[in-house]
Amino acid sequence: MRNILLKHTLIIRGFDDEVHDQLGKIANQRGVSINSIVKDAVDKWLKKQQSQVPRKHDLIIYSDDDSMMRILSSMDRLAKEGSLFRCFFGPPDSPPSELLTKLSWYNGTVEPYYYSSQKSRDVQQIQSHKNIMKYCSKVIENVVKNASDKHVCCMDFLMNDVKKSSLRETLDIEKAYNDNRIDGLMYCAYKTDNLLNSEIKHLVELFELHDQIFVLNEGKVYKLHLTKENVHKLLLS
């Protein structure tokens, strides 16, 4: 049986005779066909669109599970409307994880959970830095694999546990994610009591590793703006 190759014809409307003649002259000068020029232009446009795919990396700060749960219900509705791949990862028995599971969000947590108990957490503190980096990579790979090329709306509760064990590892992992972001929206959720025991310089570094910073309070969302200012601003109204 012969293989039959089917070619697709691309119809471009709005090309008048003058534009077509100009394309013809350029094609003759370059020794290529008009189709090649058009195809090259389309390829460049597609690459530009692909480079503009949103890869957001935002920080959410919350004080209690109730504040987070109220926001998650709204996020679930918006993510559905946007046809996003809804996913999360973090401690299996936490109230946010249980809620998102009920809402049919994909659980990207790799079992066994890296911080499954206090005993294992104490052990992890003396293990190599590579272990937690490797675990986080597996989690992201798991999410990407199951997203099937869809843009994600992903809640990350894992980083809050990483911060409890090591601030340095937290910052290194956040930097590593920035170097290889996935398509869509990634939200790293931290509790206030976990963050406020940090030095200001480390908090600022964490803030700067994210595109936007949001603070949750009694079902409301506040956007935190962080800008570097001169000292004289302290004396100006």
Corresponding CATH superfamily of the largest domain = P-loop containing nucleotide triphosphate hydrolases
Residue runs with pLDDT of under 50 for 5 or more positions = 1-6
Shape: extended
Structural class estimated from helices and strands: alpha/beta
Structure in words:
The N and C termini lie far apart (83 Å). This protein is an alpha/beta fold. It is extended and about 70 Å long. It is 49% helix and 16% strand. Strands 3-2-4-5-1-6-7 form a seven-stranded mixed beta sheet, with helices on both faces. It has helices spanning 17-30, 34-51, 65-81, 95-102, 118-124, 129-147, 158-165, 167-179, 192-195, 200-208, and strands spanning 55-62, 85-89, 106-107, 152-156, 184-191, 213-217, 220-224. Helix 3 (65-81) packs parallel to helix 4 (95-102) and helix 7 crosses helix 8 (167-179). Strand 2, helix 4 and strand 3 form a beta-alpha-beta unit. Residues 1-6 have low confidence and may be disordered. The chain folds into two domains: 17-50; 54-224, Rossmann fold.
